[in-house]
Amino acid sequence: MRLRRPAHHFPVHPPPKFAGPIREDRATGVRIATLAAAALTVVVGVQLILPVLSLRQPLLVSAPVVSAEIASTQTVPSLRSHARRDVRAIYLTSWSAATPSRLLEAIHLAQTTEVNGVVIDIKDYTGTVVFQTDNPLIRGLRADVSRLDLAALVDRLHSEGIYVIARIAAFQDQHLLKVKPYLAVRDPQGRIWSDRKGLGWVDPASQEVWEYLVEIGREAARAGVDELNFDYIRFPSDGDLSELRYPVYEAARETKRQVIRRFFEYLTAQLRPAGVMLSADLFGLATVRPDDLGIGQMIEDAFLYFDYISPMVYPSHYALGFMSFANPADHPYSVVRYSLLRAEQRRAAYARMLAAISAGTDAPAPLDRIARIRPWLQAFDLGALYPPPVIRKQIEAVRDVGLTAGWMLWNPSNRYQSATFEPEPSERTSSR
User: Fold this and answer.
1) Is 370 contained in some domain?
2) Terminus-to-terminus CA distance in the chain, angstroms?
3) Which of 49, 98, 236, 365 is paired with 131 by a 20 to 30 Å CA distance?
């Protein structure tokens, strides 16, 4: 069977420059400036501006919103009570998962190395739901095919002690925009708009799209997956963005960031009762930029609503000149470590803000109840060669930052060399 190659995660625009008093961070070799806020001190990169956090302006997340979300966790099954997992996963397309020899390769890695998880596409950029279901909404759209017996696949992987993550591409969906063309993003002439890859998008503000994504998630949860991983949870980032015309989204009424935050909230409310973990893929620059990147992604907005946040810190996807590197792809350890350090700083700052808002309540400790960082790492050649020792440098960076939730490797061809990984540890992640 010929394997189809999925689309890459896309890079974003270069970060803005920062002018001001600077000093050099010995740990990272990056020049930084320190800005004092009303409640916190935040480290800011010369080319990477982090938000200045103040309890008077807590990241545009109001106390009532936070308090309501805290209360909601006490009325639905807790996800974070059993979220202390170190998941070391490899990515598989649905085609690889459906090919016996390729699946056996993945299982063999889990049997002989530190790998203990897989991420499997159940709906990629094509929009095809790769397992059959009796769900009337999915069946009505003729979106499902019988490529995978998902429940049987999950059972088999669980029997090997492998943690199963189902990946769902959200707003990049070629099937949905064909069967429901009124949901498609269009150009000024009314034609379906395409990005530089020739791919169309559905409107991220559409409640109808949200409901559809939740139904897919529920069906995967019923099949027994451990985690639902949502990708492309954003507005388009490339192509002629000036031509975008949305059927639902109105910039005059709501920002892109507000739309994406509402989507996060909706996913959590609808899918927490399913009992699975929830994770969100964000651009790598979301760890260091103070804005929503023009696509609606702000890392602070995801902390409340997911168990894991997975920034795609692929060094090849950072702009030339990032951290003063002529080619960031040549510096995998430094780029990954710097990005994840900033992500953890922002996570800690957000937890302090949350603690102040929730003071006096019986809510769990803030750091225990907000999302943990589990990054996507580069395992493909782009910008530089990425053999096992280079991939290993990224894994070392994750550990050196002190992250304990693990990592996920992205390789479009799903080829992973055992030399990339350490031998099987004595303790492996058990299935749910």
Assistant:
1) yes
2) 31
3) 236
